[in-house]
Each structure stands twice: as structure tokens, then as C-alpha cells.
Amino acid sequence: MSLRHAVGLLSRPKAEWGAIRERRYRAARSFVTHTAVLALIPAIAGYVGTTRTGWRIGAGAAVRLTEESASRIAVLSYLAMLAATFAVAWAIHWMSRTYGARQPYGQCYALATWTATPLFLVGVIQLQPILWMNLIVGLPVLAYTIYLFYLGVPVMMEIPEERGFLFSSAVLAFGLVALVALLALTVLLWSSGFGPSFTY
Predict the structure, then answer these.
(1) Number of folded domains that form the chain
(2) Which residue would you say has higher pLDDT here, 39 or 196?
(3) CB burial class (10 A; 0-12, 13-18, 19+) of residue 167?
(4) Contact 143, 121 (CB under 8 A)
(5) Which domain range does residue 47 map to?
(6) CA atoms within 13 A on the CB side of 119
């Protein structure tokens, strides 16, 4: 079922949102069958890419992370993706009353986790941790993810498209603030001795 929805969101997103809405997923089911599995893709790919492939700065030798450092970062990034999905779902549920969309938390979580599907799938490019390549591939996928969210909110929350646009924008603003907070936390952790360890 997860694979079918994932393909549908990439090929016929509006119709697939309707199919997801009709399934009335519970948060636990969406987590087990979708989020917990797909969030492994970027975490594992990042671990392999930073320990085996590495990246080059200029014409120098490849820079890699130690296995211990990479595994710690992979676990933390996996947990951060799970937490982010729950946080966005909570924000959707919390804001839903303001926009006249009284949906259960499970529906809000399904919206959050299925929206993140393209981001989870594109995580496979971390096998080659090259910044310019990640940007070229990642930015269009991020744009499509935002499009998916704007398309999915009115369908999943069963509200008019005009209200859905405002609702989506409010949740997106919450997501951006949360991202900045996460980046600040990362800087604090790195400066406290939790930064990556490199091998050359």
C-alpha cells in the first residue's frame, strides 16, 4: 500500500490524496508502514556516502567521516526526520480549528508523512555526498514537496482550496521556523564537541 501511494503521489497527486484521505490512516499505521521505513533511505545513504565515497575539495584526496561519527550522525538525522514529521503533523492538527478543518490527528499525520515522501526518496543521492549535485537534484524535489503539500491540504482536511492555501502557508511558515531552530541546535551541538570526525 505504501509503494502504491508513493507512486501515485508522483504520477497523479490530486487523485492519490483523495485515495489516502479515504483510507483514514491512524498515525501509528502511517508511522510503521511509511515514515519509519522511508526515513531510513537518507540516513543509510548518508552513512554509506560519507564513510565509503566521501567528497573532494578541489583536487585533494577524498574526505570521509569515521564510521563512529557517521553512524552517530545517521541515527540523529533519522530521529530528527521522525520528530519533524510528528511536529508538522501536530502543527497541522493544532492549526486545523482556525481554518475550520476538524480532522483527527491520524489524518494530519498522514498528510505530513505522505508529503515528505519525495524528500525521503531523494535521500538516496546521499550515496554521493557532492554539494552541487545534491542542490541540483534536491531543490526541484523540495519545490515538488511544497506543491504536494499545497495540493494535499484542501483534500485531506476537506476544506475549500482558498482556505487550504492560507492553511498551507501557515504550516509552511511553522516548518521554516522549526528548520531554523534545528540548524541553531546543530551549531550548538557541534560547538559542544558533538561535531563530525574526519578521516583522510
Answers:
(1) 1
(2) 39
(3) buried
(4) no
(5) 2-199
(6) 20
